[in-house]
Amino acid sequence: MANTAKLSREERKKAKRASRKKAKAEKPKKPRDYARGSKKRKVKKMARGQSKR
Fold first, then answer.
1. Against a cut of 0.90, is the pTM above it?
2. What span, in angstroms and rounded, lies between the C-alpha atoms of 30 and 52?
């Protein structure tokens, strides 16, 4: 991405959005073959009390 230090806030936003869109078009991510969050460790039982949270 180009140097955005000299741009105004609105111009910076436009530049970042454009570069994000361009990156997505050039290197699309492959669709995941598992459900989101399914690989997270499951918590069996939370201990009572605030200190354990």
1. no
2. 38
Query: What string of pLDDT tens digits covers the 53 residues of the chain?
Result: 667 788 899 999 999 999 999 998 898 888 989 999 898 888 777 777 666 55
Q: Which letter does DSSP use for residue 9 in this model?
A: H
Beta-strand (E) ranges in 1-53? none
Burial pattern 9-40, b for ≥16 Cβ within 10 A else e, equals eeeeeeeeeeeeeeeeeeeeeeeeeeeeeeee
Question: How many C-alpha atoms does 25 have within 13 Å on its Cβ side?
Answer: 6
